[in-house]
Amino acid sequence: MSKLTKNRKLVLAKVEPNKAYKLSEAAALLKEITFTKFDASVDVDVRLGVDPRKSNQMVRGVVTLPHGTGKEVKVLVLCTPDKEAEAQAAGADYVGLDEYIDKIKAGWTDVDVIITTPNVMAKVGALGRILGPRGLMPNPKTGTVTMEVGKAVTEVKAGKIDFKVDKFGIVHAAVGKISFTPEQIIDNVKEFMSMIIKLKPSAAKGTYVKSIYLSTTMSPGIQLDPKSVDNK
User: Fold this and answer.
1) I want to staple 23 with a disulfide (CB 3.0 to 4.6 A). Which of 32, 41, 199, 228 is the partner?
2) pLDDT in tens, the chain (232 residues)
3) How many CB atoms lie within 10 A of CB 148?
4) pTM for the complete prediction?
5) Residue 91 burial (CB < 10 Å; 0-12/13-18/19+)?
6) Radius of gyration of the chain from its Cα atoms, rounded to whole angstroms
């Protein structure tokens, strides 16, 4: 059995097992139990009382976090020449069409979000086997297939994220960085949870939000009291 490090012992001493913390307590506690030398991500994991195998219980959506994610998001816009200036003015990192389609076919996927226009989806659709598994496939439901490419780029750069319940009924999302203030973390988590609540499927029965955990990249999860994340 591996020996516990000094920091690990400190973490275990501070986090009470089986306790559901208030969001304000958890946001402050995260700062005390994260010792990474890099700016760790703050993640939220929500277990929902849904059956993702049923289409009428799928939970998927987008939300713009008040304080962003803290991550520099690299955006590729695949569009025709008439939309290139709009995309570039909004801050897109890469803009073009055929040359980037060829690069992706050759294995290049060094971006976080791909935005495209409906009129080129026939070309982009051919990249499904490459982009799909990486979560990069543009989708009208997440606002990444649109004629308003400038607006879409601006929203993504400002902290718009998309999320989807996995096959186990859990939604995972990065909602900030450990360098954020506790207040910024609280605001982002509340905004995220507000959207989760809004998206509750009418077919979902029983308890909808079963558990919520807050953690950083290398910290243990802190269980949250669901009542403390209510925006009301």
Assistant:
1) 228
2) 456 566 666 666 678 888 999 999 999 999 998 888 899 999 999 999 999 999 999 999 999 999 999 988 999 999 999 999 999 999 999 999 999 999 999 999 999 999 999 999 999 999 999 999 998 999 998 899 999 999 999 999 998 998 999 999 999 999 999 999 999 999 999 999 999 999 999 998 899 999 999 999 888 899 999 999 876 5
3) 15
4) 0.80
5) middle
6) 20
